Amino acid sequence: MIDLRMLAPRARALAMAFAAALVLSVPTLASAQTTTGTTEGGTASNPVGVGSAWSSQVTGAGSVDGVALDPGQLAIVEKINDYFNALGDLHGSFVQTDAANEQQRGRFYIRRPGRFRFVYAAPSKMVIIADGENLSFEDHDIKSADRYPLDSTPFRVLLEPQVDLVRDALIADVYEGPDLIVATLKDKADPTSGQIKVFLSKAGDQVDLKEWIITGPQGGDTRVELADLAHAPRTAASRFQPTPFLPVSNKRK
Known about the structure:
The protein has 253 residues and is of the alpha+beta class.
């Protein structure tokens, strides 16, 4: 270790200033990571898996086969397909819990096919919008946005024009209990790129989306729990359009 007392006065002052700056930089970095919700896997935590490694190809040559499903499991999968294919508008509140157990809250709006809006509660100024083709990750604090193809997010398999989970995903597990239906879905093109686990609540013949967990390739989980669900009134189409004139800092293909 360098003994600062042995340095010339000017060099000693410079060394002390550098050390102070280094110490001050550590909480600044930590604060930035908390704001963006960076997970252990290095991808920003968000409710739909933006920035995940899922393939943008729903089907195609080279896809691996899913697990063999017995007739009872296929019937459960059909219930999930039927629910999402009948889903029009859905809106309510959400709680997002990331891999570090940090929570964020907000409002969400979903319209099939392929449209949704997640608005984080203050002090966050993040909004995530899908218009049916692209997905915008908007940060209104710095007035900038990242844009992704909708097909590159695992959430897209639930909002296809015709939802068919056997066709669109590798089904790793499916279960139905007295009040719950659960399905674990992986990318058919690359099962190592993470998964989405979907939970639907049951009350008699009524089925509704309850929550989902998106797991990244490195294992970090993002849990999204829904509440205050409503299917009406119909959400204004403008809610699913990206903010006009907001600069796009990064467009991912």
